Amino acid sequence: MKLVSTSLLAAALALPLIAGPAIADSKEHHAAVKLCKQRYKNAVRGAKYLKHHDREARIEAAKQERERCIALAPK
Quick one: how far is CA 35 from the chain centroid? Predict the structure, then answer.
């Protein structure tokens, strides 16, 4: 019984040490993805006043940049 309670106590104390960095990483990832999406949104807004072909090219480039940005975001 003492062994079980000791192991449960050790697991309970170790859990915040394991989960802490994971939460920080997810916050960094969320912030990076948010920034990528905002940049894409701004690029689409800026392309609104371009002619048809230029607008499509700018939006396509923005999509590729957003995908690359999200792929490079910290996990």
Answer: 9
